[in-house]
């Protein structure tokens, strides 16, 4: 069983790795969870368009780094001495409650339905799983699983709890620069373009319907 990190030592950095995720709302929710649990960055692999539905603005508070291929990401992890921990129910996986973390850690999540592909499995240095206590479901939602593992990592790493608001049941949220004073990220530009495309499609559908009614 791994012990918590000593307060005298630098605290390990945590990263959330998103690869082969198919649903936009899961991506957005995991970015939100990564922000809540103090991850240093979200690593996105092989997803040219990144829609952050469900992130509730948290993408402003956490760096998102993108790689085109697994090989590029693997080289970056090795260069920066980051251990890849896969969240998958494989025979060699360790119970996440034992906190078997080893240092700077990238937490790798698999696809919602099929789990990790062979490249992802081969990239992981070790695995953790989340115990379940009934036979009512085969696995957890990917965002729920990611959140549980990140919470365990943050606890093991000894991250300081965020400040809570005194008059509301919320945590304090840091302000960030908005509008013309801040350069938009690639993800924000893509999200804006996607919203514009959907809006134009709806407008075109309305025009087509008006033509049908007139006929």
Automatic annotation (TrEMBL):
This is tRNA/rRNA methyltransferase SpoU type domain-containing protein. Residues 181-215 are annotated as: Disordered. GO terms for molecular function: RNA binding; RNA methyltransferase activity. Residues 15-151 form the tRNA/rRNA methyltransferase SpoU type domain. Keywords: Methyltransferase, Transferase. Transmembrane segments: none annotated. CDD domains: SpoU-like. The keyword Methyltransferase applies. Residues 203-215 have a biased composition (Acidic residues). It comes from Blastocystis hominis. It comes from the Eukaryota. Residues 181-202 have a biased composition (Basic and acidic residues). One of its GO terms (biological process) is RNA processing. PANTHER family: OBP33PEP LIKE PROTEIN, RRNA METHYLTRANSFERASE 3. InterPro entries: Alpha/beta_knot_MTases, rRNA_Methyltransferase, SpoU_MeTrfase, tRNA_m1G_MTases_N. It holds the Pfam family SpoU_methylase.
């Amino acid at each position: 069983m791994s012990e918590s990190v000593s307060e005298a030592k630098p605290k390990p950095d945590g990263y959330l790795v998103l690869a082969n995720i198919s649903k936009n709302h899961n991506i957005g929710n995991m970015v939100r969870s990564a922000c809540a649990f103090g991850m240093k960055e979200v690593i996105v692999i092989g997803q040219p368009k990144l829609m952050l539905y469900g992130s509730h603005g948290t993408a402003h508070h956490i760096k998102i780094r993108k790689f085109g291929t697994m090989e590029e990401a693997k080289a970056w992890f090795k260069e920066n001495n980051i251990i890849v921990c896969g969240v998958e129910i494989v025979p060699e996986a360790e119970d996440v409650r034992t906190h078997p973390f080893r240092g700077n850690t990238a937490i790798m999540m698999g696809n919602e339905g099929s789990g990790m592909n062979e490249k992802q499995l081969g990239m992981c240095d070790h695995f953790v799983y989340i115990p379940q206590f009934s036979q009512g479901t085969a696995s957890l939602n990917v965002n729920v699983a990611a959140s549980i593992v990140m919470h365990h990592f943050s606890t093991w790493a000894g991250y300081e709890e965020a400040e809570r608001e005194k008059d509301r049941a919320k945590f304090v949220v840091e302000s960030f620069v908005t509008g013309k004073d801040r350069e938009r990220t690639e993800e924000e530009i893509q999200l804006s373009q996607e919203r514009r495309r959907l809006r134009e499609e709806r407008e075109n559908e309305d025009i087509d319907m008006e033509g049908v009614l007139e006929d």
